[in-house]
Amino acid sequence: MIFLRSRSGLTVSSISLAVSIAHSAQAEKLSPEWQEQREYYNVLSEEACAGDRASYETLHDMAMSEWNPAAMNGLAWVYLTEECPYYHEDTDVAVGLQLESSKAGYPIATNNMAHRYMLGDGVKQNSQTALKYFERAISMGYGTSAIDLAHYYLD
């Protein structure tokens, strides 16, 4: 790593360390509306990934029939996790679910789409589009996106 001293006396490595510590301290809480849904659909996603058919069916129904944004993002995770019995090799469905979840205002899906565009993961790589998604997630109050974006700038 190159060490650069800024006018404030901070080095790139000290900024990187601070960002890493802040990011790993704990999962960021969302607004009460989203946090409750996040917790519920995370449990369903984990249970589905462990092979619980009823949890998968509930998650699938809420995502595909009810178009619940948190459920869509959770189902996308299930589809993208190779260890899950409901894993899909074709990522188009999962990416589509995350995109729709983001459009519906779910900050975590918006952050996920930012990473996808930054890395070209399931979409064509486009750093300008990634930046727009990061900024949107940040404007939704999801500070983790600011930390994630800072990591890209540091790298």
Characteristic terms for this protein:
mainly alpha, 8 helices, globular
Question: Quick summary of this structure?
Answer:
The protein is an all-alpha fold and 155 residues long. It has helices spanning 12-24, 32-49, 53-64, 69-80, 92-103, 107-119, 127-139, 143-154.
The average pLDDT value, as a whole number, equals 86
Percent in strands: under 5%
Helix content estimate: 55-70%
Global geometry: globular
Total beta strand runs? 0
Uncertain spans, ≥5 residues at pLDDT below 50?
Answer: 1-26
Q: Rg, please? A: 17 Å
Structural class: mainly alpha
Report the order of strands and helices.
HHHHHHHH
What does this structure look like?
The structure is a single chain. By secondary structure, the protein is an all-alpha fold. 68% of the residues lie in helices and 0% in strands. The protein contains eight helices and no strands. The chain has helices spanning 12-24, 32-49, 53-64, 69-80, 92-103, 107-119, 127-139, 143-154. Helix 2 (32-49) crosses helix 3, helix 3 (53-64) packs across helix 4 (69-80) and helix 7 (127-139) runs antiparallel to helix 8 (143-154). The radius of gyration is 17 Å and the shape is globular. The model is unreliable at 1-26 (pLDDT under 50).
